[in-house]
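Format is chain and fold; as here:
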Amino acid sequence: MTSPESPSATVPVTDAVTNRDADANRPPVLILGGSALQVPMIRAARRLGMRTLVVDANPNVPGAVLADEFASVSTTDVDGLLALTRDRELAGVTSVGTDRPVRAIAAVARAHGLPAVSPETAAACTDKALMLQAVAQAGIPHPRFALASDLDELRAAVAQLGLPCIVKPLDSSGSRGVVQVNTEADLPGALDYALAPSQESAVIVEELLVGREISCEVLCVNDVYHVLATTDKDTTGSPHFIETGHTQPADLDADTLAAAHGLVARCLAAVDMHLGPAHVEMMLTDAGPVLIEFGCRMAGDFVSSHVVPGSTGIDFLGLVLRQACGDRIEVPPSSGRAAAIRFLTAPEGVLRAFHGLDRARGVEGVDAVITLAQPGETITPLHSSTDRLGVVVASGPDRASAITACEQARDLITIEVDQAAPAPRPAGRSGLPAQGRRVLIIGAGRGQLGLIRAVKRLGATAVVASLTAGSPPGLKEADEAIDVDLLDPDEVARQARRVGVDAVATSCLDTGLEALGAVVEELDLRGIDRARARLCMDKSAMKRRLAQCEVPTAPFRELTSPDDLAAALDEVGLPAMVKAADLQGSSGVFKVSSPAQAREALHRARDLSRHGTVIVERFLDGREFGAQALVHDGELLHITVHGDDLADGGLPIPVGHHVPADDAELEAQARQVIGAAVRALGLDNCAVNIDLMACDGKVYVIELTARAGANGLPELMSAVHGVNYYELVAREALDLDVVGAWARRAPWSGAALGMMLTDPDAHGVVTAVTVPADLPEWAVDLSLFRGPGDRIDGFTSSNDCLGQVVVRGADLEQCRRRAQQIASQVEFNLEEA
């Protein structure tokens, strides 16, 4: 399935081969975030021989599989991060390219006595109002500004500052929520637009600066501000100012360069910054440089990871990592080269394919060509940096050669887009059933794409709630996005009330279930409440409820301290399962065969858990399988039992599902147990995913949760029942004739199978993907989760799946042949690192 290629010699920074096991006892560096934005830093740490502990609220981020250790903790959850690291030593703490974790970095560093900016400096650098107040007190040139929390205050601010002006969030980045306002009629829309990605209740209004925009990439060492590179910016201009390219060094005369560097020093001194990276944006006006904003973190947009090394030869990521770990560092002189980056964009429509990527990579001087979208995704207008489709990076001895190489490569790439306009929607509710309604979708990952599309097909507005750093794929498909931490249910509920939604739903995701329940309660919507959501997310509470209601489940014991472990093992026996109670999927789950293994597993599970709660349960040696169900107004509309295919090599990871499960007696017993489990947890008006085990002639519930299953299960249900399963989930949330839609289904009389695409031996960066030109009618779905520019590192968890294929056939044997036939036509070409 994968085909390696020789690595390019022009990439400015490459990973050295390191023996990571040699430093197994070394304290890890904590990296906040595991999205694609953080992957270069994780690789840089590996290259330097550092161990990494990566945290992210989303367990499916690419950094999870690159890290030595991973924990599902939000990068803004200070209490959770302190609990995770309280009883262990850290080498350092850092992140790259985003403001969101900056305050958490400062708090964790202070608790561990590690180098970082102070919490006060972190606050001033992540709140635009505090930032501008600090520079105003220091007499630094800055735009005039005012705050506004409602339309009246916004009108008053505009009366003070004049039109045109800029309205933007207090706490966002990447141009999200930033808009130029030209007339008073634009003010209501601008207020809503700026508040949407923000967790604050106010926006900032600034005078419009006119001039040329640049930025400075800075590293502060021993109170000295080293400007590593000065960057020319290309943007779309009004109204959203999306960056379309960067060039280093900026084309400036000596006096202007000195003035810009002087502004950097004054700004960072104004917030008492003494060490670490900074990214300072300014406008070169007729009166000289004027601050736009700055952050005490490295630049995103591949500037820190690709452009700075390309133009200066300086290992920016390595210096920041070493400084965060307390190493003495010196900033080397620049190589005096130049580098350029240009972003790929296309008109609105549906992305069909990229053409010319290999030709672009072959241009002399090109360091990287990276795509940020996959075929099948909807291309939306450029409103933020997440709407861009890819990047080209090049370097050379001077600006002209770097720009020429970069733009020549960019121009060799064509983006095939289906620009066919959708049929006009009929006016009124008599046309599309959800016309005019707004659905909040919890999550914006690949598991929510089908739900987003189903909501839009029903005529509703799809509003996704998710952290937007790393550009999850749902951002491009949704109509609107709220930048919010799903592990903060109260904030999600507050944002839902602010933007106004008529329904809330999710699929394939446990992380945001409590947030979903909070929205249901706050707005009195259809779905599970917060208490039921907590039961689904807490294995210990779930097991207690199942046991109380006499639902068969593996005997278990909750551990309140390590001293309870021996008694627990005596009660449940060996082998046993040790599980972090508040994590989902296989995260924090360990099979143990001895007391020593159990002690080690307990320590690891407690470290991974946000709350430190661990359970020990009897290991059931039997057949693992599962089921999908839909509960509507207290009745189980269906229970579909499916077989699970596990990974080779003893890994207990499902890599496929099939219907029928091929054991009628087992299915009948499973249906009874499932009905009892659903009633025990009080689940209603939702999809349900159930994990089961057949052991010694009895069916046990492992766990269940109030959402559709992941890894191809909604597509498998669609193939089995002849109805779009995501649409059923959306209809349930909207209370739209679910029973009638189910009655109109067209069930398949044969078998159906979903198979995940995996390759345990694949390691490298994807340069191209080959897929079948056409799919036969029995191929229900072929979806790819990795594309050019993505890293593949074997297969150790479901996060490593490369894609999925779902087929139908007369029987399971035919389905397996057909799935393999499609899989054999999918090839990932890799560049080994």
